[in-house]
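for the writeup, i need someone to sanity check this before i put it in the appendix. the sequnce is what the collaborator sent (i think, or maybe the updated version? ugh). structure was predicted straight from it, no edits. if anything looks off just tell me and ill rerun, i have time this weekend
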Amino acid sequence: MAGVGIRLQRVLRQDTLFAYGACAFYGSAIASGPWITIVAALAALLAALALNRAWSDSRPLFAAIIYASCFSSIASAPCVIVSVRQAADAIWRRRLAHIPPALSTALLGSVLCTAAVGGACLVWIRQDEIANTPILLGVFVVSLIFAAVWVLFGTLSYVQWMRPIAVVVIAGVGIALLGGMLGYYLSGSFGALLGFALGWLLMGMGLYVIWRARCPRGAVWDLNAIKGYSDLGVIAAVGLFYQLGLWADKIVVWAVAGEPVNGVGLRLAWPYEALTLAASFSVLPGLAFFIVSLETRFVQRYRRYLTRIHRGTFDAICDAHQALLASMFAGLSRLLEYQGVATLLALFLAEPLMRACGLDPLWKDSFRWLLIAAFGHVCVLAMVTFLLYFERRWEALCVTVCFSMLGFALTIITGLYSGVDSGIGPAIAAFVSAVVGFCLLRWRSGQSTYLIFTRQPIL
């Protein structure tokens, strides 16, 4: 995420338990994107099928949705982060009429990139003799729907339309669950995939209606929005490599230890994927705190700092800069405390949690390493976000490239000694990248005032 942050202060002024809960839920959903919603809906659908002893035949459904999520999140990441940044800039400049062109461009680019990436991968998978063409076509369609929802949800959530977005998302998830269950009993995994996709299609349509109804009337397409991708190309690359880092270990595990799923052609390394999904829920406390606390308190000092630059003395600018840095590092410290407590609790309760999720406790060591990796992902996200706040785009790109490349390399290297599905590689990659990000952040954030003045034109 990038830009000026999300305006949650208005809700927090109510000072009620419901307001704090709503902001925490909304903040964690925004920071994790639709990914956590997809995981929750998929887990609920598979749990419902397992109650009816249908799990043995539903693995093609699980594989199809995981692959569709992988294709859409990676391919659409550059368009999503640029669209979010353009929306944030439009809010900061109070030019909401600039949001529709940026969103339209991101929607088109996201769908085209996902179609290219997903299509190429599925054509390669189709060469397998046991590939199931209807399921692969379903994966392709669902990945396009997911990509559109990524863009719409990520961009519109910045315009603080909390209630209508929440209603649309909850309704879409409910329809996906009902459609998935009904489709499974009518035509198996393929029907469940179509039913699940229907819910997300209706969710995307609902978000589109919100966009057209709430955004100011004006041009839907603008050449300047397309030109913005050349100006924000580094930020687009940041989004791409961050998503690659999140999926790096899964891609390696599928290639090395994956097995074809029931004649579909898609490969899974069960239960590694389920362990990863379960571990991803442990980051919700940290993500909620990151959005609600850091991006409200920090943003207030950030705006004060920018105001001092335009209309303040040098001493006032330095004071605002020191207050900004103090707020940032205090927030990072509290983030580590909140997420650290949540991770330690999950590590201690690993075996009971796995039994509750229907997973074999023999995989408890891998699950614990994946919990540690999820902790590292929150840290990487925080470092990248703050670097983008200080317009340290190349430094943020360095962190995400390190994150993705180490994810691939360390998963392979640690696999030589403990198995690629041990979870050790992604955990080390995440924490090394977070340390690199912290060092760059501490170094470059302290130079912000100096760089601002040295880049001013000489009159």
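DSSP finds 17 helices and two strands in the chain. The chain has a mean pLDDT of 79.
thx in advance!!
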